[in-house]
Write a structure and sequence with these properties.
- It comes from Mesorhizobium escarrei.
- InterPro entries: HotDog_dom_sf (IPR029069).
- Its EC number is 1.1.1.35.
- The protein is globular.
- It is of the alpha+beta class.
- Strands 1, 2, 3, 4, 5, 6 and 7 form a 7-stranded antiparallel sheet that branches.
- It has helices at 27-44, 49-55, 128-142, and strands at 7-8, 12-13, 57-68, 77-87, 91-100, 105-117, 122-123.
- It has one domain: Thiol Ester Dehydrase, Chain A (Roll).
Length: 168
């Protein structure tokens, strides 16, 4: 089976209970959409529900940077992508996008996930069989360009003021 680059979820619908009093998708549910796609990508790498139940190993999210780009509404359908940007023996760095099925960008998410031994819980190296699948996905995704919105930081950009000369 070939590894899609990037991995893209089947179309997802916005659920009625996710709409807030402003009439658009509540901010929390963007994370739900990203998480559902991540779960499918993790399953492809051998780290799904059975992995957690049988091997007592799983993925925890350590950090997320989410950018809201355009509002989503109840009647919208979306695709969510997952691009594995980097990994080591215990961590995954991923970039995701939510796109309306018409193609426009609604949100981006960049995350750092930890591989966890649930008996601790403690961060633990990937088993060799899983690491091999992670490396296959990373190799497939390495051919993709680095997303323009990856690596962003939060800050307030200030316009630099030019010094004013004394006018007499």
């Amino acid at each position: 089976m070939s590894t899609p680059a990037p991995f893209v979820s089947p179309p997802m619908a916005i659920e009625k209970d996710w709409i807030d009093y402003n009439g658009h998708l509540n901010m929390a549910y963007y994370n739900v959409l990203f998480d559902r796609c991540s779960d499918e990508a993790f399953e492809m790498m051998g780290m799904g529900l059975d992995y957690a139940k049988q091997r007592r190993l799983t993925i925890y999210t350590a950090e997320v940077h989410l950018c809201y780009v355009r509002e989503l509404h109840l009647d919208h359908k979306v695709d969510v992508s997952f691009q594995l940007l980097d990994h080591d023996d215990k961590r995954l760095r991923a970039y995701q996008e939510i796109r309306h099925v018409d193609g426009w960008l609604a949100a981006t998410s960049e995350s750092l996930s930890l591989h966890v031994d649930m008996s601790g819980p403690k961060v633990a190296p990937f088993p060799a069989d899983v690491l091999a699948k992670v490396e296959v996905m990373r190799a497939a995704h390495a051919a993709l360009p680095m997303p323009e919105r990856a690596g962003r930081s939060i800050g307030i950009r200030r316009k630099t003021l030019e010094p004013q000369s004394d006018r007499r």
